[in-house]
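Thread: WDR86 protein, structure

OP (GT): Posting the sequence first so everyone is looking at the same thing. Length is 391 residues per the record. Can we get the structure tokens written out before standup tomorrow? I want them in the notebook alongside the other entries.
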Amino acid sequence: MGNSGSAVKVCTDHQGGINWLSLSPDGQRLLTGSEDGTARLWSTADSQCHGHFQGHESYITFCHLENEAAFTCSADHTIRKWDVVTGQCLAIYRGHTSIVNRILVAKDYLFSGSYDRTARCWSVDKEKQIQEFRGHRNCVLTLAHYSSRDVLEEEEEEEEEEEKVSRDLLVTGSTDCTVKVWWVSSGRCYQTLLGHTGAVLCLILDAPNRELFSGSTDYTIRTWNIVTGEQLKVFKEHQGSVICLELVNRHLYSGSADRTVKCWFVDTGERIQTYKAHKHSVSTLKYHAGILFTGSGDACARAFNSRSGVLQKIFRGHKFIINCIQIHNELLYTASHDGTLRIWDIRGICKRNKRRLKKERSVQGRSSQKGSLSRLFNNKVGCMVQQENGE
């Protein structure tokens, strides 16, 4: 069993549960979106709240932080853009007719998915809708984005002239059990990926390898070729809905309602590790420096040695489900439905893990050296035998 940890700081400014936590690309700020209808901006330097964004008429479902702007979406059917310095609302994106549950910012685009069964694309700067993606039979829960330039060779591209101008594609996962891939420029559906028999809860994209991973309430993870739409593999060992995914160095980590995380080797589909100890669903995952951090419905965060699966530490203090975690400068940030943001010092376990990795590499190096000497010896013996036999 791992040791219990105490938070170095507990931030209690929100008056409702925190639904999402986003870290800016430069690592200087964090953004929390809450059931209280507000978002708050936090400095990673001093852990203080430096911004309070008010204006939504209902709870915030999700948020995204850039270096200079913050984005929030809400059950009030809108998305808002905020100035991180002044706290001023810079834009309101209107058009959805139900809860907006997910947003994604890529290039100059803002994408959104909603319970109104559509996904939409907006111009970040011009505050207007560029495209609507209509075709799902139920709500859109999760989004991913890529460019065909990342995955297609010139001779493979068969899109229409209109779509050659903009080669961006949006991927949507829905409770209608399908994943759809759309051309951003035209709104046309490029692929419908069929196979899941339950709602698609999470997506993760590996564009360089042309792969998309989807997790579902049907207890499976499926891998797809995003060029052909072919289903490549089905990972079937979970006994509950697959809630979250993390992909690191061709290793896929999946968190489930069955209270476990599993690690899969993507190239073979082999399950190589199971991380146990959770007393409720695993709601969020984050890999950092050889350590797998998890957040759970049992109100605890945990740190596991990613390779051995050994539980290294339990972070106790939250009262309800941990919805999101972030890591920066060897500090772990956990956001919970109890309305608090908690900050934990993880330097100790990171340091221990680095020592362990160094020791393992040293052992592997000696082992490899012995193997090389052994092969050299065997080769020499083989040569001598051949010479004696006159070969």
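GT: Both are above now. Quick notes for whoever picks this up: The first strand starts at residue 3 and ends at 5. The CA atoms of residues 24 and 275 lie 29 Å apart.
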